[in-house]
Structures are given as structure tokens and as C-alpha cells.
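Box 3.1. Reading complex inputs
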Amino acid sequence: SQQGEEDPQALSIQEGENATMNCSYKTSINNLQWYRQNSGRGLVHLILIRSNEREKHSGRLRVTLDTSKKSSSLLITASRAADTASYFCASDSGAQKLVFGQGTRLTINP
Amino acid sequence: GAVVSQHPSWVICKSGTSVKIECRSLDFQATTMFWYRQFPKQSLMLMATSNEGSKATYEQGVEKDKFLINHASLTLSTLTVTSAHPEDSSFYICSARPALHEQFFGPGTRLTVL
């Protein structure tokens, strides 16, 4: 399969806790991106990390990238009920197209 | 920020009919647009890359005669599902690329074929 893998496939935590999702990809990349998708909706771009970066922050989001392991992680701190969604990583190898991971369904319980 | 729209947002059709889905970049020009398909609780699978003024590039396993793509202008790409069947029922999402590394996604079109 061309797709990358994400784990866990589903994650349920209490509001206020941190959520960590992991992603692995298969080819060399220019950058890796994380997206959020609410049920039945389009994708919202969260953050992009370039291949020469190891960590990036945006608000409550922290993304790491390990190109030697072809893996990335997304950390959402102090989770809120509104963070409930599916989260996808997408690798950009520079061939114009994104390859999406299988996604993590995150549920934040109030 | 960059906005991409899709029309319609949902469509129900009978088996054997054709359905056209539009993808528009509202505030930028996009030489490249992408069409994805997403089945329930699954990830996005790239179907094809649409380049303005030239033929689309289809991913392996995607029938180009069934999924017709037209990218006639820098702000509009269309996907036509010809002779739709129930197995074509899915969520179709487009994205547009104004710059080298960014893609902006449309809200998706849910197609149900009866």
C-alpha cells in the first residue's frame, strides 16, 4: 500500500490530558504535514514540518520528525472537547502529491 | 487564507447516471488540483492530479474513462463520475495547490449511488 501508517487507530482521553499520535511513512520526504478532519468534513491543515526540521510548535500542537526512522508524532496538549476529530499525517516527497496515513480517531471526553 | 469550494456538497443519484463535481479555488490560482476519494472510516486515497491545460495524471487502479477530470481554468477543476454504481459511493475531496508545498482542501462532496 502506498499509504503510511498511524497509531493508534483510535484514542480516547479525558479533557485536559495530552494526546499523542504517531505516523510512519515510506519514502524520503520534503516535508510532512498534519491535518484534522471533523466527521464528514474536509481537511484542515494544522502544521507542516520540513525534512530538515526536528520539532515544530504551533499553539497547543507539537510535531516531531525523525527522518532516520521515517516517523513523526503529533502532540496535542491540554486537550479540549473541540479537538475530537480524525487526525492524518501526509508525507510530501516532492512529487507534487501527498500520501496520507491511515489516521487516528481522537475522542476527547468531557 | 486560501479557500477551496466544492459543489455540490452532497448528491444522490441512480445507478448508471453521471455526476459532475466542481472544485474551485476562490481567492487564488491553482495550476494543480488533486482529487481524493475517502471511504467511511478510512484515509484519503489520491485518485488523480489535475493540471490546468493538460491531461490529468491518474493513480494506479483509477479508471480514467470512468472518472473524467477537466481542469479548464486556473480556478476550476471538475470530476465527472460516469455511469456511477453503488460501489462509487464515497466522499470525494479536492485540493488546490497555489504554491510549491501547500495544498488547501475543499469541504468534500458525498456521493450516494442508489
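In summary: Residues 56 and 63 of chain A are 5 Å apart (CA to CA).
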